[in-house]
Amino acid sequence: MAAPTLNRADSGSGESDVQTLTISKALNMGLRAAMEANPKVLMMGEDIGKLGGVFRITDGLQKDFGEQRVLDTPLAESGIIGTAVGLAIRGYRPVCEIQFDGFIFPGFDQIVSQVAKLHYRTQGRNKLPMVIRVPFGGGIGAVEHHSESPESYFAHTAGLKVVSCSNPTDAYWMIQQAIDCDDPVLFFEPKRRYYEKAPVDTTKAPGPLFASRVLRSAPSAGAATLVGYGPMIRVCLDAANAAAEDGTELEVIDLRTLSPLDLGPVYESVRRTGRLVVVSEAPSESSITSEIAAKVQQECFYSLQAPVLRVTGFDTPYPPSKLEEEFLPDLDRVLHAVDRSLAW
Amino acid sequence: MSSPEQWTHPEPASAPAATAAKPTAEQVIAGLRATDQGDVNLVQLLTPEGERVQHPDFDIDITAEELRGLYRDMVLIRRVDREANALQRKGQLGIWVPLLGQEAAQIGAGRALRPDDMAFPSYREHGIAWTRGIHPTELLGIFRGTDMGTWDPVKHKFHPYTIVIGNQVLNAAGYAMGQKFDGQVGDSDSEATICFFGDGATSQGDVHEGFVWAAVYDAPLVFFCQNNQWAISEPTERQSRLPLYQRARGYGFPGIRVDGNDVLATLAVTRWALEECRQGNGPILIEAFTYRMDAHTTSDDPSRYRLSDELELWKLKDPIERVKVHLVKQQWADSAYFEEIEAESEALAVELREFCVNMPDPPPERIFANVYAEGNPVLEAQRDEFLGYVSGFAGGEH
Ligand SMILES: Cc1ncc(C[n+]2csc(CCOP(=O)(O)OP(=O)(O)O)c2C)c(N)n1
Ligand SMILES: [Mg+2]
């Protein structure tokens, strides 16, 4: 029942229903809609029941759907993921919450060895329609292991799909599309943007799940392309606004899907602008950003006016939070890279 | 003291009435809940009312001076805890992890250690840190975001705080194996290791693997589980059908439940367990039955998942109050003494506060320091490029 686009309410009048929502509320409503639409959808995780999760993303769901559909599990990520595999092959569609990015690693073995490979190993007889939700990234002043960006590990693993939302509309729709997907999906939520608000049309999905999207176009020459995802989209858009004031047009593309990558719109853009800056909080070595740089130089070789530049977290452990402003790509570092690209 | 064999098969006093039929989960849970008031296997030497009671296996001779010392430790560390909590409220710390209610479990266990013993904490063990000679100011950077703890873990034999639940248990098992391989086990002068973790942690694979490893290698390791009844919002029933101390049996070593709000009992049981480990009879699991009287952290709101009645009940079992009552009853301390400790704790709070608000922010190069023991040229180039970029700002070139 993989539905690439969803229109939950289109049995109705077709009128749009637009509400202003935070990313966190949009996720909550998206999860609720998925649970209402399919009784096989389950939530599993630590503290997701009565507490509603430490970020309240599952707030109220246990109360309304009961303890057998919203499971406060024992404290063990390998257990959460491993039992979700069993539930999935039994016909359920589990949605696992990992409390923080840094706590996915006890479940890493199950994800890489079972979640990613069962479909392959059973010649397609076992489907793994499960979602692993991960609040990720820094910027919230947290202690160790609460600010990491582990997405590249999963994008590196065949058999997994990896997406990240950057705004309330995508939060609302992408989570439902991920739950509807028959492949396992790692769903990265930009935790420091949880409380950012925007209008959401809850009647119509704006597009398919595994597609990147141009958020701001720059048709003219003398421009550059900015690509990011998740929490860095806000930084990219702010950089584009700031650059526009200085007369530089930046095209901003939200990757949305990290595996499979949907780079068609990026190639199209780079062929026009000739310049690309890729932005991510994750360390740069062997990462999503290196993958993009490699592919773009291959596909757009004759269009490039400058090397693909990357603005990323450093290749260090995530530092103590007083240093995270230095660690995280910000407006200045992005604009600095844009300047370097334009000056090449 | 008793031999460990006696403790290999402690029968629960109120085993679930399961003969023919397996008990339902609800029955088991109900049984567990009943043990919340403690069961006959709970080792206690000082009642909540401050009465000294005897225990056939774990009695302890304690002098007035020693008991005053334990009292002082607990008062000071509670004051530190409350001050740090307040510093978080004032925005001076990003977060704080309170130990309120767990003072006896930590001071009792910590004071049973000798300088050569090694301790592996999780993240709430401020009282253990204190007993390892670590000044509370050294904890603050973790919570202010300036560092990851500044104490020297080798010198203090106190490992860094471990936040990923359960990880440290395997590390502790390995350390204890090393003590054994080094021939440091076999008599009363030997070393031992103690590892702290919570009730929630007992579900993690790492903790189970730690049990297996320590058992298979006869490691001199005391597993010290502070069962504070909650893992954030999840009660202990979410993690186990049986009382946690009974798990040890399945791994082939003794498990004991001690009143974790009783500093004397905790001291006695931990001393005994460490001694058994020194002699080569480890590992041993201690479940310190206690209560997290405050929120999980300053970011948590317990009113969403637990009733305040529960807290009120546990207040009656306060770990410090009972010692105070006992000291007074025994005439081991007078009001002047209590005032003196009070004043000392105030001075410590002031010191902590002043230290905290004056902590400098770390310089940017710290991000890149100590990632590798032998350096990494790729990272060094990245560092130099970034520092060049930062100094461009400082010079106003940008
Ligand atoms: C691997 C991992 N998963 C989840 C978390 C988030 N988390 C932090 S503390 C905690 C509960 C721990 O409970 P317990 O072991 O009883 O220790 P307590 O906090 O009560 O001292 C959770 C789920 C974590 N730190 N590490
Ligand atoms: Mg606990």
Shape of chain A: globular
Counting structural domains of chain A, the number is 2
The Rg value of chain A, from CA coordinates, equals: 20 Å
Low confidence ranges of chain B: 1-37
Specify the CATH homologous superfamily of the largest domain in chain B: Thiamin diphosphate (ThDP)-binding fold, Pyr/PP domains
Instruction: Give a quick account of the main beta sheet of chain B: strands, pairing sense, barrel closure.
Output: 6 strands, parallel
Oligomeric nature of the chains: heterodimer
Give the low-pLDDT segments of chain A. none
* Helix/strand structural class of chain A: alpha/beta
CATH architecture of the largest domain in chain A: 3-Layer(aba) Sandwich
Strand content of chain B: 5-15%
Radius of gyration of chain B: 22 Å
CATH class of the largest domain in chain A: Alpha Beta
Strand order, sheet with most strands of chain A: 3-2-4-5-7-6-12
What is the topology, as strand order, of the major beta sheet of chain B?
Answer: 1-7-8-4-3-2
3D shape of chain B: globular
From the N-terminal CA to the C-terminal CA of chain B, the straight-line distance is: 72 Å
Largest interface: A-B, 40 and 47 residues
Report the order of strands and helices of chain B: HEHHEHHHHEHEEEHEHEHHHH
If you consult CATH, what is the topology of the largest domain in chain A? Rossmann fold
Tell me briefly what this model is.
Chain A has 344 residues and is an alpha/beta fold. Chain A has helices at 23-37, 61-65, 77-89, 108-115, 118-121, 151-155, 168-180, 232-245, 264-273, 288-299, 324-327, 331-343, and strands spanning 18-22, 41-45, 70-72, 93-97, 131-136, 161-164, 185-190, 197-201, 213-216, 224-228, 250-254, 257-259, 276-283, 309-313.
